[in-house]
Amino acid sequence: MKITDYSRPALRFGMLFTSSTKGARLSRRIAVSRLTEWGYATDTAALLISELATNAVTHCCVPQRWFLLRMDVHRHRAGPDTLRVEASDSCADHHPKPGTPTDEDESGRGLLLVDALATTWGSYTRSPEAGVGKTVWAECVLEAVQCTADTRPR
Ligand SMILES: Nc1ncnc2c1ncn2[C@@H]1O[C@H](COP(=O)(O)OP(=O)(O)OP(=O)(O)O)[C@@H](O)[C@H]1O
Ligand SMILES: [Mg+2]
Q1: Nearest by Cα to 113 from 54, 51, 31
Q2: Would you say 111 and 94 are in contact if contact means Cβ atoms under 8 Å apart?
Q3: Ligand 1 in reach of 60 Cβ (< 6 A)
Q4: Could you read off the pLDDT of 118-143 as tens digits, one per residue?
Q5: How far is CA 32 from CA 18, 40, 79, 138, in A?
Q6: Is ligand 1 within 6 A of the CB of residue 86?
Q7: At what angle do helices 43-58 and 21-37 cross, to 10 degrees?
Q8: What is the DSSP letter of 67?
Q9: Where is this chain compositionally biased, Basic and acidic residues type (predicted)?
Q10: Which atom, in ligand 1's list, is nearest to the CA of 97?
Q11: pLDDT at 64
Q12: What's the pLDDT at 1?
């Protein structure tokens, strides 16, 4: 059986955003609308995008920098399409680490949510050729939205 070639996604999106709350919000809005255009339901994906983008601008404290949001859709010979979301920021010294929040803690739940919803996730330091910093990634299964004609690009 042919194995999925992950270096050649069926659909790809990538854009740089300012490392700010506004940038994170904008990245989510644009990425979600792209997924909708591609014909997929966005609930799980939107949450993954939002958590990764928010973390990239919250925990990477290099001012005046950008972060890169990427989405790759993979089609498989058997099984549903899958999405890989990547948020690359400029900080390689700190990597994401899920916390153990108590009932009183108001934060520290984002990655627990990612861990629960993603099929797999992780982070790696970017190679010098790819740029400084690190990439945090998460993958999930995509659900095609029911429509009268299949408008997804092939
Ligand atoms: N992109 C990142 N760069 C550096 N550290 C990160 C990054 N993302 C997460 N972390 C680390 O992992 C911890 C847990 O992240 P998580 O998203 O679960 O919680 P939070 O962002 O602190 O709070 P919440 O997401 O609930 O608002 C963070 O407190 C931070 O120390
Ligand atoms: Mg968070």
Answers
A1: 51
A2: no
A3: yes
A4: 999 999 999 888 888 999 999 999 99
A5: 18, 9, 22, 15
A6: no
A7: 160
A8: E
A9: 85-96
A10: 12
A11: 67
A12: 46
